[in-house]
Specification:
Oligomer: heterodimer
Helix content of chain B: 55-70%
CATH class of chain B: Mainly Alpha
Number of helices of chain A: 10
Distance between the termini of chain A: 19 Å
Structural class of chain A: alpha/beta
Shape of chain B: globular
Largest interface: A-B, 45 and 59 residues
Strand content of chain A: 15-25%
CATH topology of chain A: Protocatechuate 4,5-dioxygenase, Chain B
Distance between the termini of chain B: 14 Å
Number of strands of chain A: 10
Largest sheet of chain A: 8 strands, mixed
Number of strands of chain B: 0
Amino acid sequence: MAKLVGGICCSHVPAIGAALDNGKTQEPYWTRVFSGFEKSKEWFRQMKPDACIVVFNDHATAFSMDIVPTFALGCAAEFHPADEGWGPRPVPVVKGHPALAAHIAQSVINDEFDLTIVNKMEVDHGLTVPLSLMFGQPEQWPCPVIPLAVNVVLFPPPSGKRCFDLGKAIRTAIESFPEDLRVVIFGTGGMSHQISGPRAGLINSNFDKAFMDSLAGDASYAKDIKHVTYMREAGAEGIEMVMWLVARGAMDAKVEEKYRFYTVPASNTAVGHLILENAV
Amino acid sequence: MASTATPNTPQKEYADIPGTFVFDADQSAKGYAINAFCMTLLKAPNREAFKANEAEYLKPFGLSDEQTEAILTRQWNRMLELGGNIYFTAKLGATDGLSFQQVAAKMTGMTQEGYAEMMLKGGRSVEGSRTRTEWEKKNG
């Protein structure tokens, strides 16, 4: 049977992708960000996952205002990097895992989470920047990736609790998949930031730290944070943090924090990163 | 000027968050044409066509006159006020060669340098930025 071996939470700032793609990783501004992921790369190599589920948000790339699915699972064999206006990122095509994705879709829908199924989708920085942070600039990504897109663009996104509960349903799905796969789940986006309106630039490190502390614990505080609280305390776009709760929900009630990193800023955003394993 | 824009209608629970346009269903309905236009800028030939003749390019989208003017004059807050969403209008920013940080800075009314420096120093503090009352007290 497949097994969930870890959870990774991290931010997805587009400027991080641009810094990598334009060879700026040695500039002090950016070494401060990238050095925070060196230990994570080692952790990933040792875990040897066979597949990753990456919970992310699309930024008006695959989904315009024509159709806005709340949760959309990528079931395709591959996902191409999108042109977001600056040209597509020069990163590998993301290979999916159609068999596991189809199994998850069936399992969570039967579990009353009415997902949208996506069989063709281009992926933007929301998905590829976390992969770049964790894997650098390889020829191919180290394993298949199942994208799970969460609407955080059109208010309201799903609640933190709903995200957490979806994570639990995904865990059930993983553990009923007949192949012996080692699976890692990513929760991406955040942390505090606001990139729109006169209040742009807002950062709230205290809020971010309390959120990470909660996720490393039982998540009871974090999963009940209201949307208006995210927006007021962590910036209008800080609401992306609900996506971390999908990853946390998939883990055991008790987790072990293997690694944490936090820095301000990357462009407009606080960068946070956690690695969690189920407590033994 | 940008910072006097009045986001959100008062009856919503998030209406008291200052300097913020919450992109909800009402805003989305109002700004469909802005966002539909911005989506076309994902394709390089469209970016070129837009740059060649902006006013002409905008005609088929069913924009209101004020939406058209906000786009042509690059009033970034006004576009959000009229129903645009930042992830869409950022594509117009990209077409102009602007990064997310540069677009964000424009919406604050700060200089690029001032904004970048504020971010390096830890960003805008949430203290004084939680409600309209404290925001007005802080920012005058």
